[in-house]
């Protein structure tokens, strides 16, 4: 299967979105709203839930199910207030010594007038810096599309995992095709060249784990639940300064 | 990744940022994209690369920028030998790099180093527009990360001249990761109580805006600079509407609360000197 086929799978209608994962992996998810400054961005869902006996702060980029919900959630493209809500919940997790689980599924941060006026760049930058210093374990899971800075803003983690068909890219292959080749029909070639698949990213040392997909997604949820519990249990035993050090080292080694 | 239409038009030969320019090149006329008038380069250079007629800010070569800000002969470049690599064997990238190197006479899109600025030792970086519009590749990120680490270790403030179209597509995800890597280094520098002043030039967009350009303790921007996450064309396409007047210009971004001061390039050094001196001691820490 080529990069382009993975891309189509990652974007496929009917593919489970962040809330499905949250509901299937965790118990008693309580959703919390708002960035405490401007509003509540429904492209980002966040809250607290149980992972067996561990309370976890869960944050996801949510694309929505039916058309109406997709529109309400802006197709999973967050505004600055979405990233600020995520950051608020991460700081809250740090205060209460809860691990953080982020679910990434977005074509990218929203490119609009309001998003720019309210500091989309600043919001993402704040998350990158704060996540680098967060004194609690962070794991990010890519379940579909991982579009550029808007995905990275929830992925400065101790470990990054990807579903078999998820993709993670600096720019959409369509965008790269039109900018580099000036030809949108070169999207397939761009998808290959950009190295966006889980296999590519594992080989490049950008992710730690690939989770294979099954026809029956309940098996996928069960596997994630099990390895997540195992990994958080191990990470929670580490000293928080070591966690922060390891997170920096994880990114420090990439490129150069 | 934003292609700015306001880049001033120039002949193909490279003229700026080196000492080996012939007088013939100095005499050659360049067209200002602000007013369309033609000037010999020497006229523009004498005027801090500002159009004497319409005040349009021409792009300043990174090396000129650093040498202007540093006291005489104090600039010492770090990691000068590091250069971009075609890590993903991306189609056409090797050729793009060789064109960029020729045009800019630099090995990467950023120059880093240390210098004395008004008697204060500083770590400095400046991004080069002629090198793929200052796009951020792995080595760009590595050099800036090393600079912040060096500054943290030696207790130096950092002044960074940002200019970038964003993350470099030809290095794929590895470029994106530089945003996190540099942010980590900035964070550690900040944690150590050290000052970072970001100076945003035209244009500062994409992954650089969404990382170290916005991470300064103090953020300055040159007059008229385009500053944003998404480029204006992308936004216009998404919104299917006209953008507000002055949208994403330094003055607009300051009004929205994301920049401290919009500066006239001719006063930049003076402002930087003052800010650096004001951070030499705390006062409230018993140092008075
Ligand atoms: Zn002019």
Fold and architecture overview:
- The complex is a heterodimer of chains A (256) and B (288).
- Chain A contains 12 helices and 8 strands.
- Chain A is an alpha/beta fold.
- Among the domains of chain A are: 1-14 and 157-214, no CATH class; 32-50 and 67-97 and 110-135, no CATH class.
- In chain A, strand 5, helix 7 (148-152) and strand 6 form a beta-alpha-beta unit.
- In chain A, helix 4 (80-95) packs parallel to helix 6 and helix 8 (173-181) crosses helix 9.
- Chain A is globular, with a radius of gyration of 17 Å.
- Chain B is α/β, with parallel strands linked by helices.
- The longest helix of chain B has 20 residues, at 172-191.
- Chain B contains 10 helices and 9 strands.
- At the A-B interface, helix 5, helix 6, helix 7, helix 8 and helix 9 of A face helix 5, helix 6, helix 7 and helix 8 of B.
- The site of zinc ion (ZN) has 8 residues of chain B, from loops.
């Amino acid at each position: 299967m080529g990069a382009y086929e993975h891309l189509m799978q990652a974007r496929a209608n009917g593919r489970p979105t962040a809330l499905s994962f949250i509901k299937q992996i965790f118990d008693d998810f309580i959703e919390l709203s708002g960035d405490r400054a401007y509003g509540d961005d429904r492209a980002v869902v966040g809250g607290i839930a149980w992972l067996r006996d561990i309370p976890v702060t869960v944050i996801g980029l949510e694309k929505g199910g039916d058309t109406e919900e997709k529109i309400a959630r802006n197709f999973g493209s967050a505004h600055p207030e979405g990233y600020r809500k995520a950051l608020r919940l991460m700081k809250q997790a740090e205060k209460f010594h809860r691990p953080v689980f982020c679910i990434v599924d977005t074509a990218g941060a929203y490119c609009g007038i309001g998003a720019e006026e309210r500091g989309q760049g600043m919001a993402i930058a704040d998350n990158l810096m704060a996540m680098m210093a967060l004194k609690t374990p962070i794991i990010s899971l890519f379940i579909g599309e991982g579009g550029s800075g808007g995905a990275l803003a929830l992925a400065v983690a101790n470990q990054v995992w990807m579903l078999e068909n998820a993709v993670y890219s600096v720019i959409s292959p369509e965008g790269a095709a039109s900018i580099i080749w000036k030809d949108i029909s070169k999207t397939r070639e761009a998808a290959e060249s950009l190295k966006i698949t889980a296999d590519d990213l594992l080989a490049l040392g950008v992710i730690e784990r690939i989770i294979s997909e099954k026809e029956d997604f309940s098996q996928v949820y069960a596997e994630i639940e099990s390895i997540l519990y195992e990994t958080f249990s191990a990470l929670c035993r580490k000293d928080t300064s070591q966690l922060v050090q390891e997170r920096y080292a994880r990114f420090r080694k990439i490129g150069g | 990744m934003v292609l700015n239409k306001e880049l001033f038009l120039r002949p193909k030969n490279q003229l700026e940022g080196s000492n080996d320019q012939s007088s013939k090149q100095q005499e050659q006329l360049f067209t200002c994209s602000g007013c369309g008038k033609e000037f010999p380069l020497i006229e523009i250079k004498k005027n801090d690369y500002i159009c004497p007629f319409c005040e349009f800010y021409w792009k300043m070569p990174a090396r000129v920028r650093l040498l202007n800000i540093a006291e005489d002969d104090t600039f010492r470049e770090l990691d000068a030998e590091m250069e971009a690599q075609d890590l993903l064997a991306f189609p056409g990238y090797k050729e793009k790099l060789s064109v960029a190197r020729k045009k800019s006479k630099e090995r990467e899109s950023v120059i880093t180093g240390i210098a004395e600025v008004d008697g204060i030792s500083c770590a400095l970086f400046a991004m080069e527009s002629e090198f793929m519009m200052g796009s951020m590749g792995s080595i760009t990120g590595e050099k800036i990360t090393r600079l912040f680490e060096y500054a943290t270790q030696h207790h130096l403030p950092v002044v960074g001249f940002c200019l970038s179209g964003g993350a470099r597509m030809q290095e794929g995800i590895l470029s994106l990761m530089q945003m996190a890597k540099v942010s980590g280094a900035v964070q550690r520098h900040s944690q150590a109580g050290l000052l970072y002043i970001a100076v945003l030039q035209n244009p500062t967009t994409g992954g650089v805006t969404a990382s170290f350009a916005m991470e300064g303790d103090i953020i300055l921007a040159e007059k008229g600079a385009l500053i944003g996450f998404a480029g204006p064309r992308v936004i216009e396409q998404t919104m299917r509407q006209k953008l507000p007047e002055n949208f994403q210009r330094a003055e607009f971004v300051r009004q929205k609360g994301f920049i401290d001061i919009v500066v006239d390039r001719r006063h930049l050094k003076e402002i930087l000197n003052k800010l650096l001196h004001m951070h030499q001691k705390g006062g409230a820490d018993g140092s008075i």
